[in-house]
Every structure is written in structure tokens, then in C-alpha cells.
Task: structure prediction
Amino acid sequence: MPLFRRVLVKERTVMLLYTLLAQVVEGYVQEAGETTCWKSTFIEHSPWIENALFAGSPCPGSIRMWWIQTPPSFVETGDTFSAAWGVSINSSLEVTSMPSIMHANFHACFQSDGVCSPLYYGASTEASIFKSSQPPTAKNLTNITWGTAEFWGHGYQFDRGQWNGVAHIKFTTGGNTTHPEHLYDVTLGFPFVVDDVASYLGDPAEIFIIAIAGIVYLYLAFLIVVAVRERNSSMMRHSVFWLTMVHLVGAAVFVTTVFFWNLEMNGTRCKLAIGFVSVGFSLFFTPLLIKACEFFVCKEERIRIGNSSSQKSRMTGIERQKIAITVTCFVVVLGLDVLLIPIWFTIYPPTSQEHVWDDPYRDTCEMSFESEAMAVFVFTIKAALVAIATFMIWFSKRDGIAKHALERYRVSITGVAVSGLVAMIIQVAFSSDVLTFLIRSIGILAAAFFGTSWLYLAWQETRLLLKVQRRGNLIEESTAATPSVTITANSVTELAPDNSTKTFYALFTSPIIRGYLYNLMAKSLDQESIEFCNAVYEYKANVSVEGAKYVIDNYVDADAENCVNVSADMRERVQRKFGEITQKIAEAKSMDEKPPPEPVACEKDVKDEEKHLKASSSVSSPSSSIPPHIRKELKNLFERPFKEVRRLIYMNNWKPFREVDDEDGDDDDHD
Result:
């Protein structure tokens, strides 16, 4: 066989064997930072190598390479980077190439290609996997045939992917410059990744959450202002001011978690997220846990008429219970944070991965097994506290105004529980970064919103009552409105002869309480009951035939627009009694009977009387012209329907009133 054909067959055989071997080699041959050499022997009349199968072994001690400036381990897509390396060749090797280092460059191969060799070109020499983005350079060694040299490269740029990067030099030894004996390819490896960067808080989902968080911050700031302004008002009756402020500030800290627990995570943000979500939640939820315990453990604060020592003792006991509950909850919840979080971050701190491939939202927060166990332990305790608070608040009972406070806290605690449960289910069930981030963040914001809603609801209810009060004042000032004389306490015994009626009257003289009752009745579509009671009180303050006729026409008559819920027999008795009274008045006038003199009314009473008469449909029978014995009958005309409607109010709304009324028993009319 001719020499040329023998050389060609040998070349193709070596190339095939090397190609097959290269497919099973994983990555480049050397570890990062190690120097690897390919020594090739020149064959006459052929550019191929003789020692290809023995390439990629550690370099002899006479050849050494090192990084002066290592490439970055992560490069954003489209960015360029620099690298610098040095080479040292001792005198035992005689370098014959000119310049001494005839080729120097930074190359890279995809890690998926399996090998990064300066001699491997794939299936053909035109499809090289040994890539570079800059032209090579050359330089002489310090002593030409031996010595050191440094190479600085800039502007390297590669496509998105995982790369094996190598600093590569070539030089020849032996023979002479024209006909060297050996060719050395020397490489120094370093892996790196080129990937897209999801900037911190730059994703549309993150921007959306930040916008919602801003709204929640404004809402919490508003509640803080409300709490400060109303700290001495009845609205804060069921809340301790400093505890409310801890609750609101804790909610703000808890909301801040969304700025750290997001799509772009690293070690620092991971620790901040854990700290804010743990401490913020403790400050935010502990006051709610305290209220749930108070409603569940403490007895109802029912203040009866009187000022007995037993009542004072009972109230003191309740206050001591509340203090004990507050101290215990804070010590348990915040104590766990103070104890566990420093241990967690000191011994088993969360760390940051260098890179998570194929994940544009790089949540690189990484925890060891012990760190994950600490996380599960801490958050399991907090979930258990939420479950306990939810159980206690739903199995607590209150009546009257305390019932409304209980309902407000039920809304808050249940909102926190549901928000946390939904976020936890989504977090565990789905792997989508954006979906879990959105649901988790919305869950945090929703928990803060609903958890503080009790204060907003209390403020809203107070505004409604004040609005009702102002509306009542305007009605009283309007002469075109129905008779509405302000009730005074100049004759409590006369207007309220029994204890039950005294209790009702004492509350009813407050416009706020009347508005509160009216609001309750409006919700139950029974506002005519409270309006009827109001009309009877006003009627008793200024007794007249016209006033009695107004009450009958508007509340007692079966066809009245605001007909109250009393029996048909009761309606008939009132109307029959009113007819008898008007007939007696008419007979008295016809006989020109003069009534006995009555005490002179004060100027205010005269003005109120004039105001009432102006609002009446007729002024033909002023109360001063009615004989005293007939006036008494007229005054007690609505006693029975009033008691029936009053009992209806007790039964439908306030259990304490009903109990007081039951203790007093049924009173007969004073006809």
C-alpha cells in the first residue's frame, strides 16, 4: 500500500476512535483550575496527530497554567466578560515555536456536548464545538524558549447555556521552528453559565403584588390614624390601645415579606423573608389570639344597674384573667421567635445556590435538612395557633354589643386562617413559580387586610351610628317632620316606673343607642319597633290628643305605613280607648268644665310644646285644656302596646334586657 494511503487510513482510524471515546467523556477532562495537556506528534505529510488517544492527561511539572482573573460563574445573556491567565514553561522543554506561545485564547464548549477538547471537532472539521468569540493572540515567553507569559482577554460573549470554559495555549517543542517534533495544547478550565436575568421586583407579577402591597400599606396607615384618634372613644372599648398598635405595626411588618419572598431570591433575601414572615406574623396575630382567648375563657362583662361590691370583685377578676392571657400569649409566641430564629440562622442558616439551571426566576434559597426541619417546626406552631384561635372564636358566645365585637373578631381571625390555608395548599400542590408567588403573596396581603378588618368594621359602625344621630337631630329641628321632642330626664320615675323600663329609658335617652337599635332593627326589617318606642317616649313628654292620633295613625292602625307587630286585639283596644277618651274630652268641653290649675311650665317646656303643636295636624285640643283625670288616661293609652313592642326588641336583639325584664315580671297597665 502506498505511503500516502497508509497515512490516510491511519488518520481516519484514529479520528473515529477518538470520536467514539469523546462521546462517553463527561465534560472537559480536567477539574476547574487544573492544567491539562494534549501532546501531539507530527507525522510526515499529515496534519493529524499520532498520540490522540493519550491526550487530555495532567501536564508534566515543566508546564503550568493559572488564573490571574477567573471568568464569572454567571453571565447575563448579552453581556461580555474578561479573563486573564498565566503560563510557565521551564527550561527542560525547549520551545521552538515563534512566537513562543503561538496561540492563546479563551474557548468554551456546551456541557451537553460531553467533552471540551482543543482537538475534537465533531463529525467534521467545519462543525467545531470548541468555540471562541475573540481572535487568538500570541506572545513570546520571557526567555523565548522558556519562561513565563501572561494573557489578558476582553469582550468574551457566548450564547445562553451551560458552558465549560478553557484558557487555551499552543506551542511546539523539539526540532526547529519549521519542523517541530511535538505540539502541546494546554488548557485551564472553568465552568460558567450564561442565562437571562429576572431582575429583582422586575417581573409583571411582582409589580402587581407591590402595587397591591402599597394599597394595603395605605389601609394600615389609615387604621393607625383611626386607632390614635379614637383611643379614648367607645369604639375602642373592647381593645387595649397599645395592643392595637402592636397588631397594626405587626401587620405592616408581615406585609413587607412580599418584598423579600419573591421570584428572585438569594441567601440574604431568604433570611430577611424568614425573619419578616415569622416576627411580623407573631406581632400581627398575637393580639387576635389574645382576643380569642378572652372571648373563650373570660365570662361576659355584664354590668347590671347598681354598684355592688360583688360586681366590682367580678370585674376585677375578669381584668386579672385578661392580663394573664395577654402575658402568656406574648411570652409563648414571641418567646419562640426570640429563642429559635437566632439558633436557626446561626447554626443552620439558609444559603444561596450559585445557579438553578433552566429557571429564569432564580429562587436560589437553599436549606439543609436541619434548616428545613426548623422551618417546619416554627411554621407548624404558628399554624396551630391560628387553628386554636379559630376554634375558640367560633365557640365563644356573647350577647348585645359584645356580640358585635365577637363577630368582628370572627371575621378577622377566619380571614387569616382561610388566607393561610389557601396559600399553603397552592404552595404545596403547584410547582409554577409565578402561580405560587402570586397566591402566596396575595395570601399574605389578604391575611393582613382581613386580620385588621375588625378595627375598620368598628369604625364603620361608629360612623353609621353618628350618622343616625345627626339624622335624628335634623328631624327634630324640622317643623315639617313628625313630632320629635327631645327626651329629657326631668321625670324618669314618671316615664319609667319599673326597673326594666328604667334600663330601657336610660339607654334610650342616648341618641347613639337609639341609632344603634335602629340600625339593628333596619337589618332585621323591623325598624318600626324602635320608631314606635321613640314616638311613645316623645308622646309621653308632651301628651296631647293630636300626638295620640299621630301614633295611632302611623304605628297602631293595621293600615299604617309603619304598623308595629302587636295583636289585633291590642290595636282594637287602643283605638276603642282613644275614642272613649276623645268623647270624654268633648263632653267636658260641652259642659264648660275647667280643669284644675297645673304647675307653670318652664320656658323650655313651653317652647317644646309649641314645637310639638306646630308639627301636629291639628291644634284644637292642647294638653292644658284636658282635665287631669282624662289626661292621665290619655298618657297611659299606649302602655300595653309599648311593653309588647319593647319585649319584642329585647327578644330579637339584647338578651340582657330580656333577662332583666323577666326578673321584673309583667306589669299591669296603669289605666
Observations:
- Residues 500 and 665 are 9 Å apart (CA to CA).
- The two ends are 144 Å apart (CA to CA).
- The first helix runs from residue 3 to 24.
- The mean pLDDT is 75.
